[in-house]
Every structure is written in structure tokens, then in C-alpha cells.
Amino acid sequence: MYKIAVAGTGYVGLVAGVCFAEAGHQVTCVDIDENKVNIMEKGISPIYEADLEQLMQKNYAAGRIDYTTDFKLAYKNADAIFIGVGTPEQPDGSANLSYIATVARQIAESIEKDCLIVVKSTVPVGTNDKVEQFIKDFLINDVRVEVASNPEFLAQGSAVHDTLHAARIIIGTDSKWAEDMLMKIYEPFNLPIVSVNRRSAEMIKYASNDFLALKISYMNDIANLCELVGADIQDVARGMSFDERIGSKFLNAGIGYGGSCFPKDTKALTYIAKQNGYELRTVNAAVDVNKDQKTLLYKKACRRLITFNNLKVAVLGLTFKPGTDDLREAPSLENVPLLLEQGADIYAYDPVGVDNFKKKYPEGNNGRGTITYVESPEEALKGANVCFIFTEWGEIKSVEPETYKELMRTPLVYDGRNIYKVEDMCRAGVEYYSIGRPNVKVSSEVISEAAATIK
Ligand code: NAD
Asked: Interhelix angle for 262-275 vs 198-229, to 10°?
């Protein structure tokens, strides 16, 4: 059992801290956000992740985890400190390392015994070297400090499961002492461990995320071509998936990737390449495709309807994917302002993302348009002229095709996640546009209400 401190209680830090406690370690989670610490102390998770709150409560009751803003107290006697603070994108695409630098300084000024510092945040290649030097430069006590890289691969929406059952743990260090301690910390997890040098570990993280982003953009590119040549991307993906060299995951076409990782990690890696005189053309292409993909359906709808002014628009799904309350880089954030600019009256539904969305777009008037937040997909659909589906939540997928026909004033649906079978929407009499599949058009009488605005 080790005494572990975790800096940052976001998706990575809090989940790591809770899972270390679950594995039997003594954990203190540190955050600068007092509000977060206060609610975590009450057993409430500041983020939405399956099983997280339950494990927080269980391990808090067992005395294995606590939360604080007092970093000095948390760091001074820790055996290991895991850094899980954000590394957001800067305007030039590079990673902002200021949060890492602050924690490094706080660690240097707090530790009173030999300590292993483990960087979990996603950081540019070479950052661990700099963090180690930086901490050594600012140390106030004569103690041994080493920095190891241990990038995180969890996916939001299944973060706890992904941590407890990770496909692999990457340990990046050249120090036997650091490697041994990390091996022991992870021993109770009983997972495959890959031990490499620090720079390779840092690169594994970017290379993995960017590969997944590429896979998504590739399928979206092919989907767009499918539409032009009369193929169906879902059949194409199914046919591809039997090839073990391709695999069956990440083959779903849609309105593009979002979240806090793929968008920033693709840009950060192309930035690192540029700094080293190299152009990462494949990743650049993935970024380009994704940018256009996010508003593809909006543009399609603009060609179908002249304007959204005074139209009732049902928006189903706000978060960047199901299972999370995270809105970072969500397609909804690209599309909702475009609809509002045109004077749309939006009725938005999301099972967990509404509170975060309200912070950006409060209920009521927003520029030329309005937003009303509702409790169910059906409420959003009632009397709507058009519907956009941005997130494939189970609650949205369970809406029957007939419900769109029954509840909407004009059953016109733009599905960014291909959640329905084209034939089912056709049978239900819904005009249906999705990604990389045949469009379903219905007679103009069915769309009579929108007739005045149809080109
Ligand atoms: P986040 O923004 O959700 O959380 C970061 C937390 O750090 C915040 O609560 C913030 O208040 C806190 N913080 C900032 N400065 C601090 C300090 N000096 N001391 C203590 N706490 C401090 O971030 P996240 O999504 O968990 O991502 C963290 C890192 O992990 C990033 O580098 C990210 O790229 C990487 N990562 C994220 C995911 C993911 O799915 N979110 C997956 C793998 C890796």
C-alpha cells in the first residue's frame, strides 16, 4: 500500500484517485477548485461517470480517500504524486503546460521525503524531462525526486471501467526505482504493463489518440463519398470489420469527433511535428475532415430549408458522446449557435448535459433565437418543424421512428449518429437525413408545414 496524492480531480485525476483507493492505496485528491473539493467531501462526484460516485463513497467510508485544496499537506509525505491537471489547447494548437508548471512548483515546495512524480496528463514529448529538471531546480528539501510518464487511455463515459480493466498500463521511465514503484502501485490491478522510456510513453499517448481520430475521420470521409455513389456506410463498415487488420471498433460514421482529447491532441501533435520541421499530413487531414463534418447536417438542412427563423427545432443530445456530461468540442456547440443566429426556437434535450450547456446558453432568448430545455425527447419533438440528433444517448435511441411522425409538425430529421435504420424511418413516413446513407424524402404534403420555407 502506498500513500498517493493526485493533483487535479477532473476526469483523469479523480477516476485515477478513486481506482487507486479501490486497489487499497491511501489516496489524497488535490484540486484548486474549492467548490469541487466541498462537494466531493460530501460524496458527490463533480463529473458524471458511471460507478464513480458509488466508489467515491465506498472508499471514503473505508478511510482510503480524502479530498483537499491543501496541496502542501497532501504532497509533503506522499510516496508518489500523480499529476492529472489539464493541458488544454492554445490558439496556435500547442498544449498549454501552465497547469503542469504550477503543480510542479507546488510539489517542489512541499515534498519532505523521497517522492515519485507521475505525469498522467497528456503532454508533448520531452515534457517529463523538463518537469523533472524544474522540480529539482525548485526543491526546498534535500530529497530524491524522479518523474515518470504514465499516460491515461480512459474514455469518458466508461472511465472507471476503463481504468480498472485497462488494455495496458504504459510506464515511461529509465529509472529502476521509478519503474519498480509504479509496477507495485499497479500490481493490484493485474493488468498488462508496457515499460518504455519517457519520450516513447509520451508519444504512445498522442500516437494512439491521433490514430483513433484518423480512423473516425477516414470513415466520415468514406461516408461522404458513399452518399455520392449510392453506397451505405454502415454496410461498408460491417464488411470492413471482419478484417482483423482493420478491427470492428471506431468504424461508425457521424458528425465528427469532439471531447477534450482528440481535437486538442491532434492539433498538439501536428504542432510538435511542425516544431521539429516535419508535417504530419495524415493527422492534418483528419483535423480538416472533422472540422467540416461537424456542421455537415446543418449545411444539408440549410439547403432543404431556406431559413430556421421562427422554426421550432428539436435538438436531441448536447454532450460530445453518451455517458458523460462533458461538452468540450461537442458538435452541439458548433450547430446550436448557427441555428440561433438564424432565429430558431430550439427545444433541447440531454439526459445529463443540460446544466453545463445552460452555462453557455441560458434558457430563454439567445441572440435572434431562443432555447428551452426539456425533460424528454418527446417534449422536444412535440410540434417541431425539424429535429437534429447530435448524441446517441440510449434515451434518444429508444424513441420509435413513428414517434417523430406523430409528434412533429413536420417530420424532418437530421441524424448525426445514424441511430435509425433508413428503412424504418422511411416506413414511418419521416424525411430522414443521416451520414453516408441514402436519404429518405417524403412527399411535399407530409412536409406541408415547412412548405413555405422549402426551396
Ligand atoms: P479536467 O479539466 O477535467 O480536470 C483538471 C482538473 O485539474 C480541474 O479540476 C482543475 O481544477 C484541476 N487543477 C488545475 N490546476 C491545479 C493545481 N495546481 N492543483 C490541483 N488541481 C488543479 O481535465 P481532464 O479531462 O481530467 O484531463 C486531464 C489531463 O488528462 C489532460 O492532459 C488530458 O489531455 C488528459 N486525458 C484526458 C482524458 C479524458 O477523457 N478527459 C483521457 C486521457 C487523458
From this structure: 120
> What count of residues does the chain have?
455
pTM of the model: 0.93
Residue 66 domain flag:
yes
Which protein residues touch ligand 1 with a CB less than 6 Å away? 7-13, 30-33, 36, 84-87, 99, 102-103, 106, 121-122, 152, 154, 156, 260-261
Give pLDDT tens digits for 313-355.
999 999 999 999 999 999 999 999 999 999 999 999 999 999 9
C-alpha 13 – ligand 1 centre gap (Å): 6
Separation of alpha carbons 160 and 359, rounded Å: 26
- Separation of alpha carbons 321 and 316, rounded Å: 12
386-389 vs 312-316, strand pairing mode: parallel
Q: Quick check: is 56 in a domain?
A: yes
DSSP-derived letter for residue 80 is: E
Question: Domain check: are 286 and 307 in the same one?
Answer: no
Across the strands, what pairs with 29? 6, 67
* DSSP strand pairing (115-119 vs 26-30): unpaired
Q: What is the 424 CA–ligand 1 centroid distance (Å)?
A: 42
Exposure string of 384-404, with b = 16+ CB inside 10 Å and e = fewer, is bbbbbbbbbbebbbebebebb
In this structure, are 8 and 121 located in the same domain?
yes
Mean pLDDT (the chain, rounded): 95
Distance between CA atoms of residues 445 and 411, nearest Å: 11
Q: How many CA atoms lie within 13 A of 344 on its CB side?
A: 29
What is the domain count for the chain?
3
Rounded to whole angstroms, the Cα distance separating 220 from 226 reads 10
Residue whose Cα lies nearest atom 41 of ligand 1: it is 11
In the reported structure, the alpha carbon of residue 203 is separated from the centroid of ligand 1 by a whole-number distance in angstroms of: 19
Q: Which residues are catalytic?
A: 261
d(CA 417, CA 196): 38
